[in-house]
Amino acid sequence: MALSNLNGIEGLRIGQVTDRQHHTGCTVVLAEKGAVAGVDVRGGAPGTHGTDALRPENLVDHLHGVVLTGGSAFGLAAVQGVMQYLREHNCGFTTDYGVVPIVSGAVVFDLGLNKSGNLPDAHMGYQACEKASTDGVEQGCVGAGTGATVGKLHGLERAMKGGQGFASLVSPGGLKVWALAVVNAYGDVLNHESGELLAGVRTLRTDGTWRAQPPAFSSWRFYRDFPERILSLGWWLPTVDSQKLSSLGWLRWPRMELPAPLFRLIPCMTVTPFSP
Questions:
Q1: What is the pTM of this model?
Q2: Is residue 65 in a domain?
Q3: Which CA distances in Å does 150 have to 16, 17, 216?
Q4: Residue 73 pLDDT
Q5: Which residues, including other chains, have CB under 8 Å from residue 10's CB and lie 6 or more apart?
Q6: Residue 195 belongs to a domain with what CATH number?
């Protein structure tokens, strides 16, 4: 199957704001025509907004936006800016009193790098919407991944930068799957096929430079980990199936992070020009 990280997501627009001065930012995914969605939230330290609305037993069956943001719980203020933008563009759940945008959000804890008090807010969320496009998404230390770090066993002094990544896959039958991830891990990041260490705790070389040391977490059982990921599928699914697909997104994760994460959020959005 073909794997690419260059393609945009059909039916969605993605935008981000990067505050390099304060090491934080936010990333917004807009589905202005609505997308069937499900969500899977695991762990004991969630920082989320509006995820209960995506559960299949509830009234709303379409999502209009997802916000991934730095700033820990303070960063959820960015959701209000996204809702304002969508309302101004008449995108949302229709009521007798106007539209109500359905927006879910999740945070990463980047306060270790950003001690300034300048945190993602409604203005930043609105800006991200204004910058949103169908061209794909920037990768690296941008958007919600600006202040992300990995390999924090010995503190930030020996950690490495995490960040934001995007990939797409097309099956032989033409099914398209997109994934957007923000990785802010306490543990190490591994190649999912070979197990090779990609990023993690750094150790000092004899020449004074730093390198990632071999995985240091094989015997650790208590940890904190805050990755977020969005799956998007180019096909129509009912809400119940979207929910199940979100939970299945967890299965591969333990092969990519050691130890596996304590808090992880995976919303799944199905986008298609038609539905049965």
A1: 0.79
A2: yes
A3: 21, 21, 12
A4: 93
A5: 134, 176, 234, 271
A6: 3.60.70.12
